[in-house]
Prior knowledge:
Elements: E1 4-7, H1 14-29, E2 34-38, H2 44-52, E3 59-60, E4 70-74, E5 90-96, E6 110-113, H3 119-129, H4 136-150, H5 160-173, H6 177-187, H7 196-201, E7 204-209, E8 212-221, H8 225-228, H9 231-245, E9 249-256, E10 261-268, H10 271-278, E11 287-290, H11 296-309
Amino acid sequence: MSKELVFGHQNPDTDTIASAMAYAYYQNQLGYEAEAVALGEPNDETKFALDKFGFEPLRVIETAANETDQVMLVDHNEPQQSVSDIDQVTVTHLIDHHRVNGFNTSAPLFMSVRPYGSVSTILTEMFQAKNINIPANLAGMLLSGLISDTLLLKSPTTTDHDREALTYLANLAQVDANDYGIQMLKAGTNLAAKSDEQIVDGDAKTFELGSSKVRIGQVNTVDLDDVFSRQADLEATMKALMDANGYDTFLLVATNILDSDSELLFVGANADKVETAFEKSLNDQNRMDLPGVVSRKKQVVPPLTAAFEN
């Protein structure tokens, strides 16, 4: 049996790195020769978790077919999010918590897709089902992935499965989940080290809403002033990106991870539709308070879709 590579999506986050590490370990216990790798360097939050639990960053690859003919995917399934030569290898296993889109195989595979808050939670249950012990440091990484993707259980994507897994993993890792979680999430919010473009576009996605091309970015922080003290420069960057890419509207959602509130910064056209979507007005600084909003997928895109398509 040849070695298989295990990896998550491009621009990896903590859940992607943790789940690749854990699934490779899981498969090794079942007799597979598997190596966890990454499709990019770890972010500051992930580096904090790796340091905490004594791991080195995963080896970064750009292609897979030069090393193996079989791979295992975690935390993604859409080809454009995967390794560049995904069409040249066989996917034998897939563990994910996203929609399934554009994913096709020529042979059967093991596939587990569950609507949980994190892939780390899915893997925790898989370890439990097989009675495979999770080492304390690896439990710490799974805990980190779970905390990251659910914002310490505050995201609307959180399920009872995630809550149960958090308690279980924290006990194995011998850490206080709340204290550690806040420290880890804060580690990923050092905005002083980020450029204006990294803040507005580092985690941005484009949506075709009605006849408009809408770009929606999101940045996490522990103090919204860290974002909006740079508003003039951020707006200039958003306008430049709009001009370069043909966006009609650019929205930046700044999310305070400590109180689970957000504030929106608006640039471009369609102010009326944005106000209709959230049933409130933009202030004279082109901003809007969004209390309780943390999920772009569940709390931002759906109301905007309805407003732009009516």
